[in-house]
Amino acid sequence: MHKIKISLDTNSVNKNPHIFLDRIREWGHEGFLEMEIADALFGDINEGTQNTIEDLPVCHQTPARERTNAVEGLNVNRGGLVLDSPTMGSLNQNHLDGEPREDEIKTILFGDSYVQETHYLDVRHLGVHDASGNDFFITNDNHFLNKTKELAKIYIYVISPEDFVIIFEKFFDD
């Protein structure tokens, strides 16, 4: 039997308390979902992006650390290991040229406005999700949500936490 496999984006972990994300995590802990994160999540949290815990208001930093610690128990998909890739700590090499799906994702999400240092981790999140064959990519990030129709055409299904809960609560709740 196939469990629904989901990928969580960084903002689904390092976020202010969120009733829908909390419900999704409960379903995962109850065994209804298989939850996974991309290796890019840790780069996103640690590399000084807008998702860093230190950038949150002080009152939200402790809950964010708790979520980050909790997520460390999830499956971490590391995707393909590519020497000198940003996920190996160097943002000056672009390995996307050799991976057509990530190139396609990059084009859909950013087109000509793609800047590696700014957008690479977003592309990596979705590329790892795609390579894993996961069913849904759960995010609040508009880079992804604004492109749901285009991504669905290549069989990548991006959904907000709210919409995911609305669709699946009848299946998972008593």
Give an overview in words:
The chain has a five-stranded parallel β-sheet. Helix 1 crosses helix 8, helix 2 runs antiparallel to helix 5 and helix 4 crosses helix 5. The chain has one domain: Rossmann fold (3-Layer(aba) Sandwich). The chain is of the alpha/beta class and 174 residues long. The two termini are 20 Å apart. Helices cover 47% and strands 11% of the residues. About 11% of the residues have low confidence. The longest helix is centred in the C-terminal third of the chain and has 17 residues.
How many strand segments?
5
Overall mean confidence score, pLDDT: 74
The succession of helices and strands, N to C, reads EHEHHEHHEHHEH
Strand order of the largest sheet: 3-2-1-4-5
Helix percentage range: 40-55%
Structural class: alpha/beta
% residues in beta strands: 5-15%
CATH class term? Alpha Beta
Named CATH topology = Rossmann fold
What does this entry show, briefly?
The protein has helices at 19-29, 40-46, 58-71, 100-110, 116-132, 142-145, 148-152, 161-172; strands at residues 4-8, 33-38, 75-77, 136-138, 158-159. By secondary structure, the protein is of the alpha/beta class.
Core attributes:
174 residues; alpha/beta; Rossmann fold; five-stranded parallel beta sheet; 8 helices
Q: Which helices and strands appear, and what pairs or packs with what?
A:
Layout: E1 4-8, H1 19-29, E2 33-38, H2 40-46, H3 58-71, E3 75-77, H4 100-110, H5 116-132, E4 136-138, H6 142-145, H7 148-152, E5 158-159, H8 161-172
Parallel strand pairs: 1-2, 1-4, 2-3, 4-5
